[in-house]
Amino acid sequence: MPDTTPPSPQDPEHRDTPLYGPPGGNIPPGYPQSGPPGYYPPGYYQQPPPPKKHRKWPWILIGVFVLFFGGCIAIIASSIGGNDEPTVTSGNSSGGQAADTGLTFQGKTDGDTAANAGDSVTVDNVTTTTTPLADETDPFSSVLCTTVTINNAGDDPADFAEFDWKLQDPAGAIRNTWITGRPNVLSYGNVAPGGTATGDVCFDNRAGSPPGQYVVLYDPSFDFSSDRVGWINQR
Prior knowledge:
Distance between the termini: 118 Å
Radius of gyration: 41 Å
Low-confidence stretches: 17-24, 73-82
CATH class of the largest domain: Mainly Beta
Mean pLDDT: 76
CATH topology of the largest domain: Immunoglobulin-like
Order of helices and strands: HEEEEEEEEEEEEEE
CATH architecture of the largest domain: Sandwich
Number of domains: 2
Largest sheet: 7 strands, antiparallel
């Protein structure tokens, strides 16, 4: 196609006006600097690359992790921060008192609650009482047993399990519960609101009972809190 662009008075032969590409465009080095206006040399014009696709799955994974982690934090905070201050009611008293009664036992931490055998300890509207340890025998072993009573005055079921109980002897050794043939073992389950559960919890005593302080420990296995309740028996 012939060049129909009229020459300007200042540049009648198009010497100073680039003829490739759009008006005012710059021709890269290595290409002829003259030609019909609006014409691109072969290979000069290229299709722009398609926009990069951003992957969404890393952000989805991050969002799921944040939601999961935040939920765990909320559950832990609810479990730890929602607990009422424990109160201790003496077996000879009708009213409760603060958990810090001045009693102590070996290994007691700041969060633990100490009470005498026979006292009632209330935590989150659930009151637990243990009787003084008693020597018992069965055909196969000698054991120390306490009777546990759980009263639930809360709005939700209260879980209980025999393996949440331990016995600390005068030497500081902590014993797990002992399986016996007694008919009234505590076993495991839950107490409905307004309900009561009672059962025996026993510990191995085949070596006999040396005198000293025995502590019946309530130490729930599936609880975010590490706080325990200890009922002190002087034998």
